[in-house]
Specification:
The complex is a heterodimer of chains A (514) and B (102). Chain A is mainly α. Chain A contains 20 helices and no strands. Chain A has a single domain, classed as Sodium/glucose cotransporter (Up-down Bundle), CATH 1.20.1730.10. In chain B, 84% of the residues lie in helices and 0% in strands. Chain B is elongated. Chain B starts with a helix and ends with a helix. Classes of the chains: A mainly alpha (514), B mainly alpha (102). At the A-B interface, α5, α9, α10, α12 and α20 of A face α1, α2, α3 and α4 of B.
Chain lengths: 514, 102
């Protein structure tokens, strides 16, 4: 079945974004434009773009699906995803903006060994980006197959080709506007759905919850925590991964360089937190609306009584139930746009890690022609896009659920500790950062492989060697301890120099004085 | 010349008090956020039934829902408070320090 309203609306979106990309490509002539949109994005625009980057299809469909399945647990997830933002604002955003130009490695390597720290940061970025990207591509392929009736491979190729065009021609400027448009569409769509749900219950939450409890198989249990996190170690570990993982996502950190100064960086987080928080509250209501309106409607159920296309389709079916084919088409197009925007942000971050950190800083030692660096970043975007298409197709039948979790774990255990300590701990040395960040990366990866998500769900073993699903508590702790220890025992002259540079770095990070 | 100037600023009372104030505000607000969030998470892990208590006899709404939504709103408000303090206090002090140099 081909969904014409959805395809029409999606084509309008693609056309609009390609026009923007064309416009952006005329302006993208320098490094600063390619990586940071010339630093001319306003704090409100950046707040929307950050929200756009963060509100992926996984969080829209996944969280409303989780609410549909088990009610309250969805809210626990949302809260975890949100509380990283205040921390980013209080501890990182302004210093990051003052110290860096294009990538978070600029700030992390500011007073440390460029080669070592950039390599580590680039590795951490690329792993995070790759995992996130594969998960998004596979999700995109399946979703589009379902919504638009297109074959899986074709869907993955369309997403890949569009993101390559946005990023390689339009750089950060096009990517930012794609994010902004998508954020506005997603927020309006979700708002409309919420109002429609509440209109059904006379804007009375009592009736909404009562009706949901009446039809849900778990009855009153949907109003309290269920089985999402059952033991304290998992609970804390998940909390750490979500919080510090957010603060280590390269595509998110990169967005702080698109505004003029630290003040605008600060304001963008305020706006972003507002949009994201508002969006999560809507998702919660949408999930309950779905329980009330579609869980008893045979039109949306399969023969076993489950949701057609799985629980993640709750929001999509709800759109059809409240607004018919036209609104279903709109929400499907928004979901497609959401995926496109997120993968573009990821590709740009990955390409920048290759061209700015590896090529310009490590290989060329900072002496590089601007046009060469631009060429490398564009080629990297194309290469990354092709790899993503290829892996997206290969992983079609694989279970990729663990990948986003692993991406957050790596971001929290490798990227975040070195960035944070380079700004806050004077005694940090390159040796400590390299060993500590490397250890965090390694332990996070190993523990995910030995844990239930890979060892049991993918390798089919009976029992996991590492019993917890979320490794962050252990891997982040390891990263901090190793960094501390190997910095402390590092008495070399070179390290003393790095420590001595801390005061100047502090000055720059605080008041932006170069 | 430039490095001497930098040293002077770094050792100046104005700069030191700015750094101190900034980090005090940052750490206090971070501590509040972390404390709120991890208390909530521990409540979820150890005493989920507390979050399942109804807000009143005739209601089906549990206290977990207003608590959860409040944490989201609190997160937003705390970023607002920080921006307010930073815009009012820190930026002015920063300007003063930078003015002195010129």
């Amino acid at each position: 079945m081909i969904n014409y309203p959805a395809i029409t609306m999606f084509l309008i979106f693609v056309f609009a974004t390609l026009v923007i990309t064309f416009w952006a490509s005329k302006k993208t002539k320098s490094r600063s434009h390619f990586y940071a949109a010339g630093g001319k994005v306003t704090s409100m625009q950046n707040g929307l773009a950050i929200a756009g980057d963060y509100m992926s299809a996984a969080s829209f469909l996944g969280i409303s699906g989780l609410v549909y399945l088990s009610g309250y647990d969805g809210l626990i997830y949302s809260i975890g995803f949100l509380v990283g933002w205040p921390i980013i604002l209080f501890l990182l955003a302004e210093r990051l903006r003052n110290l860096g130009d294009y990538t978070f490695a600029d700030a992390a390597a500011h007073r440390l060994d460029q080669t070592k720290i950039r390599c580590l940061a680039a590795l951490g970025s690329l792993i995070t980006v790759a995992l996130y990207l594969i998960a998004q591509m596979v999700g995109a392929g399946k979703l589009i197959q379902l919504l638009f009736g297109l074959p899986y491979e074709l869907a993955v190729i369309i997403v890949g080709v569009l993101m390559i065009m946005y990023v390689s021609f339009g750089g950060m400027l096009a990517t930012t506007w794609v994010q902004i448009i998508k954020a506005v569409l997603l927020l309006s769509g979700a708002t409309f759905m919420t109002i429609a749900v509440m209109w059904n219950v006379d804007f009375n939450f009592e009736i909404l919850f009562q009706k949901a409890i009446n039809v849900h198989p778990k009855n009153f249990k949907i109003m309290q925590p269920g089985g999402l996190v059952s033991d304290p170690v998992s609970a804390i570990s998940l909390g750490i991964a979500l919080m510090f993982g957010t603060a280590g996502l390269p595509h998110i950190l990169m967005r702080f360089f698109t505004v003029k100064n630290a003040k605008d960086a600060r304001k963008s987080v305020f706006f972003a937190t507002g949009f994201i928080g508002y969006f999560y509250i809507l998702t919660f209501i949408i999930g309950f609306g779905a329980i009330m309106l579609i869980s008893t409607n045979p039109k949306f159920l399969n023969t076993e009584g489950g949701l057609l296309g799985g629980n993640n389709m709750a929001a999509i079916h709800l759109a059809s139930a409240i607004g018919g084919d036209m609104f279903l088409g709109f929400i499907s197009a928004v979901a497609f746009a959401t995926i496109l925007a997120v993968v573009s942000g990821l590709t740009l971050a990955g390409a920048s890690a290759v061209s700015h950190d590896l090529y310009a800083s490590v290989i060329k030692k900072g002496v590089v022609e601007e046009k060469d660096e631009l060429l490398v970043s564009r080629l990297s975007a194309v290469t990354l896009g092709c790899i993503a298409i290829f892996l997206g197709i290969i992983f079609e039948k694989q279970n990729v659920a663990f990948m986003v979790g692993l991406a957050f774990a790596v971001a929290a255990s490798a990227n975040f500790p070195i960035l944070f300590l380079s700004m806050y701990w004077k005694r940090l040395t390159s040796q400590g950062a390299l060993i500590g960040g490397g250890a965090g990366l390694f332990i996070a990866t190993i523990l995910v492989i030995l844990g239930p998500a890979v060892w049991v769900d993918i390798f089919g073993n009976e029992k996991a060697i590492f019993p917890y699903k979320y490794p962050a508590l252990f891997s982040v702790t390891t990263a901090f301890i190793f960094t501390w220890f190997f910095s402390k025992i590092d008495k070399s002259k070179k390290s003393q120099k790095e420590i001595n540079k801390f005061d100047n770095q502090l000055l720059r990070s605080q008041i932006g004085m170069k | 010349m430039r490095s001497n100037l930098k040293k002077k600023i770094i050792n100046s009372n104005e700069f030191r008090s700015l750094v101190k104030k900034k980090s005090l505000v940052s750490w206090v607000l971070s501590a509040i956020t972390l404390l709120t969030y991890f208390s909530f998470i521990l409540l979820v892990a150890f005493f989920p039934e507390i979050l399942g208590i109804k807000i009143s006899k005739n209601s089906v709404i549990t206290i977990g829902i207003p608590i959860g939504v409040s944490i989201i709103i609190l997160a937003f408000i705390s970023t607002g408070i920080y921006v307010l303090i930073a815009n009012k206090e820190f930026d002015q002090k920063e300007k003063k320090i930078l003015k002195k140099i010129k």
